[in-house]
Amino acid sequence: MDDDKIVKALEAGFGKVHPSPGLLNRIKVEADRLAWNGIPARSSFWSRLRIDSVMEFAIICVLIISLVGFTAYRIAHPEKVPAGRNHGSTPPGHIDEGPRPPQCAGVQIKPKPDPGKVAVFFTCTGDTLPATPRAVLRDASVKDEELRTALKELVKGPNDDERAQGFTSYFSSQTAEMLNSVTVTGGRAVVDFKDLSHQMNNASTAAGAGQLLRELNRTVFQFDEIEEVQFQFDGSCDAFFQWLQSSCTVISAADYR
Amino acid sequence: MSEIDAVQRLKRGERSALDDLYTTYAHPAVRIAFSITGSVAVAEDAVQEAFIQVIRSISTLRDPAAFRPWFYRIVVNAAKRLSRHTTRTLPLDLDTHDKPDFSATPPDEAAVEADEIKLLWQAVANLDETHRVPLVLRYFVQLSEQEIAEALGIPTGTVKSRLHTARKTLHDRIAGDNEAPVNRSPLRSIRSGEKG
To answer: How much is the ipTM here?
Structure first.
């Protein structure tokens, strides 16, 4: 009886839940607009480019001319263009155009950073993926808040000097205020962020998620007293890991030491 | 077979394949999304988003036979994402917005059973999403436990565990609701995991 009644209850409960008649058409319109890339949906060259007005055409021309001019300038004056700058959410490994920067000296933190310092781990531009993040140091003025300080510094991303050295990260000035809280109870840290998904669209790819988690975990597990960590968005571990196409997981220090 | 054919045609970029896949999958997809969002409108947005994602990503699907759990996983993820900032629960009251329809209950169904089914629906609606979604996928969409595992991105053992917990919760809640002051309800004889 059990299974039958569950089925009946679901059928009754969902009885009026049907796709509306216009849903298929909505999907087709949206697909035409967004998804059928590379598949000719329109007859003319201009309609495929979706250039619907003279103004749009003029703007595109200006952008193309600007791009060509900038490229020519970079070729003529390579030394005047800062290399390795990346203040957005571009994935690691994709920013090292121009003269190659000095490669991420980083610091050794074993057995521990000096007192009053915490390590923050970022990815080095030149490293082959999956890259092991390297440490840079930050001041931590209050000992009890070392972990919080480390994470607050991590979410700010590498500073200008570090970026010039080749450090990169999904974290940047855009994510500097995204850390809600850090609590440590009995060896377990709970790190709560605001929803980062809009600041880091590319981080939810498999490679991006791995890189992001390695930076987070290496930063958290530098502290010997932390044995486990749970990351969450606004109190939801599920939300954090669903963003990374996974399910809620408590991460053990053993995997990162 | 026609389903696999439709997937292969979509991989080749044939737009008519979208109609075929929509015919097969739109109903269950909207209901799965509804079980997460509690809103038909948001569920439809999730399904629309899922179909767009399918068109964009179909080239990455190696085995056309694996389309079903792959698609449902996209639906579940889209529904969860869209409902993140608008947390809603499934309607308990039959007269509310997005109301369930119990009018389809066969007229010869015993009143007691009709009550049990209503109670069961309310118990389903009260389940947390972690347990409700596997239940819907198993009993309503008829996915196997393996397919549910693929759709939700969790191990098969976890699916079994969640289904077991969901069934037990339903039984416990119904038994509790039907418990008479002196005599126990006949539903008390229903135990988790037993076949009726």
So the answer is: 0.71
Neighbour-count burial for B157-177, b at 16+ CB within 10 Å, e otherwise: ebbeebbebbbebbbebbbee
Confidence band of B66 (pLDDT split at 50, 70, 90) = confident
Output the pLDDT for position A204.
Answer: 66
Rounded Cα–Cα distance for residues B50 and B79 (Å):
9
Q: Cis link prior to A111 (omega < 30° from 0)?
A: yes
Residues 6+ away with beta carbon under 8 Å from A143? none
Question: Tokens representing B8?
Answer: 């292969």
Q: Which of residues 195-224 of A touch B (CB under 8 A)?
A: 195
Amino acid identity of A178? Answer: M
Contacts of A83 (CB under 8 A, 6+ apart): A96, A97, A98, A99, A100, A101, A164
pLDDT tens for A134-187 read: 888 877 654 457 888 899 999 999 988 888 888 888 898 889 889 988 888 878
Q: In one letter, which amino acid is A162?
A: E
- CA–chain centroid gap for A113, Å, is 27
The residue-averaged pLDDT of A179-202 equals 84
Each residue's pLDDT tens digit, B84-122:
765 555 555 544 434 445 555 555 555 666 777 888 888
Instruction: Kindly state whether A16 is in contact with chain B, defined as any CB-CB distance less than 8 angstroms.
Output: yes
Query: How far apart are the C-alpha atoms of B196 and B179, rounded to whole Å?
Result: 19
- Identify which has the larger pLDDT, A24 or B114: A24
Which residues of chain B make contact with A4, given a CB cutoff of 8 A? 196
Residue A135 and residue A170: Cα distance in Å, rounded? 15
CB contact under 8 A, A245 and B153: yes
Q: What is the mean pLDDT of residues B155-175?
A: 89
- Say whether B182 sits in a helix, a strand or coil: coil
A35, burial (CB in 10 Å: exposed 0-12, middle 13-18, buried 19+): buried
Is the Cβ pair B121, A10 closer than 8 Å? yes
CB atoms within 10 A of CB A58: 10
The C-alpha atoms of residue A202 and residue A70 are separated, in whole angstroms, by 26
Q: In the predicted model, what is the mean pLDDT of residues A50-69?
A: 77
